[in-house]
Amino acid sequence: MSEQLQINETLSFEDFKNQNWMTFWWATDLMRMLWYANMKSFQKVLDRTTKAFVSLWIPHYENMVHETREIDGKDIEDCKLTRFWCYLTAMNWDSKKEEVARAQAYFAENTRKFELYMKDNKDLDRILIREELTEWNKTLASTAHQAWVQNFPRFQNAWYLWMYNMESWKLENKRKVGKWKLMDFMWRTELAANLFRITQTEERIKSKWIKWQHQLEKTHYDVWKEVRNFVQENSWKAPENLPQVKKLPEVKKALKSWYKKMKKES
Fold first, then answer.
1. Among 6, 22, 88, 150, which residue's beta carbon has the most beta carbons within 10 A?
2. Average model confidence (pLDDT) across the chain
């Protein structure tokens, strides 16, 4: 760890920059600059960034190239990371940490306005949680059908009434959003509450062997009651009154635009 601290104090990201057919940074170097102890722990960061690329429909294999690299006479498996990959990786983590803040500033370069736009809204968190919601909804649907749900739409849609004290269409009108667009405007706290509701409902159905429509709906209700109370206790607001933020498709569009700019400059 003492060697790692020395590296972080005396070297900058510019020192680790490489130029071949593209400007890139080795994953092992980025790992050291962000104070990760080893690639095993840093792999979770790389995996999270991969999910962001998939969600944005940007080819991750063009931005993360696996190669063998020689270090101290030994061949190791490493990755070449583009500037945009490094930027998304840095934006995934807490900017209050000095080394992370330095990484964000460096890879953003002269785009301070864009950096603040991303950092203030925690938009990467929103994008990734929204993707998880899509996948977990499929899992919950499968679990409910295996538990012999008779009316899945009623089981699925009733949570709006239990969580928000109103049907989905009323909440859409209240928030002035289009049909089926509620989650596009949700702040990450509300998205995370939805994700927690889905995962815990699915877990409870499985662990307690819940079967049939009435019991499945009751389980969904019980979980949502707990989640609603938790949201109100921590935010001092009823879930239906939580603030709305920038539409997620607009966030993705801005990120894609910035990706093209970075790619051109690199």
1. 88
2. 85
